[in-house]
Amino acid sequence: MSVVVELKNIEKRFGDVAALEGINITVNKGEWVSIMGPSGSGKTTLLNILSLMDTPTSGEYLLEGVDTSKFDEAKQLVFRREKIGLVFQQFHLIPYLNALENVMLAQYYHSSVDEEDARAALEKVGLSHRLTHKPSQLSGGEQQRLCIARALINDPDTILADEPTGNLDEKNEKGIYELFKKLKSEGKTIIVITHNSELGELGDRIIYLHHGKLGEHI
Length: 218
Known about the structure:
Elements: E1 3-14, E2 17-28, E3 32-36, H1 43-50, E4 58-63, E5 66-67, H2 73-83, E6 84-87, H3 99-110, H4 115-124, H5 140-152, E7 158-162, H6 170-185, E8 189-193, H7 197-200, E9 205-210, E10 213-217
Helix pairs in contact: 3-4, 3-5, 4-5, 5-6
């Protein structure tokens, strides 16, 4: 089984404060890893490093065998677009664009715009009947599905999700659970940062963070 994500002795400091310290994590291709911990434990900082939106103070981050820790900002951006699909708690959708256009805009930043591919991504997440609806016309669960379609448009091997059910009611949470399980069954590598124990327990492993350090692995 090939290793997709490898963190080697990662440390992140903000002045004298260590937000992360001694982080060693390996994630295999097709694995679902849930990262949990209380507020202030370093989860967001870790997500920022995993998503190449920040760099560690020291240590190495290998993504698909490439040491990303030495990338400049431009290389980080290109590698993130090619390798990672991001799903956030906040939807960050363009309000005046419909569902299809929101996905096609994400396509534009990845490569070229292909309406059929965008339609296929929306169909995959169960939104083929909502192509022309704007975000305000979609439920919270549908907006999150739209975000997942947007994350999938460049066909990344790795999905990073930050509290993907944080703004959803119980019914819509269940739909997102099923969608993530489907993605895993298709071979996607999934890393979910969540406070939601029900979502976290769907993973193959749970990694706990506490005060910037790793806790128990399950």
